Automatic annotation (TrEMBL):
NCBIfam families: HAD-SF-IA-v1, YjjG_YfnB
Organism: Algibacter pectinivorans
Protein name, per record: Putative hydrolase of the HAD superfamily
GO molecular function: 5'-nucleotidase activity
Coiled-coil ranges from the UniProt annotation: none
Keywords: Hydrolase
Length: 229
């Protein structure tokens, strides 16, 4: 069923348009080779991915700072796999990860197709909790930046999703309001509940198609947005 009265479409970036897991895995493979870290990337990622998600949750909740996230997620993962590294190497890997992450730019299936389709009738925007210095590079290198009128990140807004202030900031920047806007994202807490709580319509993007709430519009492929927009 098509949404009525929508003029502005807001997207999350990582895990929604930009395939973070795939690009991150390729980045670790690259920086491990650069720094002669002899560990299987698959073994590392098995531990890293849940650890990273937990650090991002703490970061969203304002319980840790960016530097703690960047160092802690690597340090904890190396400890979990029993691979000894010193503080200097962890800091080097942390910096190299940020440097090289945007050199890989795999997008989710049908990203260009849906952005081409939506841009004909809607104004498109980004709201992301990602780091300022990386998000613009990701969008530019993957050639999607021109689709978006505004880009709001948590460092510019001063708060992170699901804090209502970041959505208010983005709506003001876009010169629109919640009743005319829809948020599309992969995080049920940050994107869906955050936007819903300020009156925005929402579409939950989940490639695993986990039915978390039958009252929430849900897709597992971006092209399915055509059902609603």
């Amino acid at each position: 069923m098509k949404l009525k009265g929508i003029t502005d479409v807001f997207f999350d970036l990582d895990h929604t348009l930009w395939d973070f897991d795939k690009n991150s895995a390729l980045t670790f493979d690259k920086i491990f080779k650069i720094n002669n870290v002899n560990i299987a990337v698959e073994d590392f990622l098995e531990h890293y991915e849940p650890i990273n998600l937990n650090y991002w949750k703490l970061y969203r909740e304002e319980k840790i700072q960016k530097d703690t996230l960047r160092y802690g997620r690597l340090n904890d993962t190396f400890e979990a796999v029993g691979f000894k590294v010193d503080t200097g190497l962890i800091n080097k890997l942390s910096d190299d990860y940020i440097t090289h992450l945007s050199s890989f730019n795999h997008l989710f299936e049908n990203t260009f197709e849906i952005l081409d389709y939506l841009s004909l009738n809607y104004t498109l925007h980004i709201i992301t909790n990602g780091f300022d210095e990386v998000q613009y590079k990701k969008m530019s290198h993957s050639k999607i930046n021109h689709y978006f009128k505004t880009i709001t990140n948590s460092e510019i807004a001063g708060v992170k999703k699901p804090n209502p202030k970041i959505f208010d900031y983005a709506l003001n920047l876009a010169n629109t309001n919640a009743s005319k806007s829809v948020m599309i994202g992969d995080s049920y807490e940050a994107d869906i509940m955050g936007a819903k709580n300020i009156g925005m319509d929402v579409v939950f993007f989940d490639v695993n198609n986990l039915k978390l709430d039958n009252n929430i519009k849900q897709i597992d492929n971006l092209i399915q947005l055509k059902k609603y927009l």
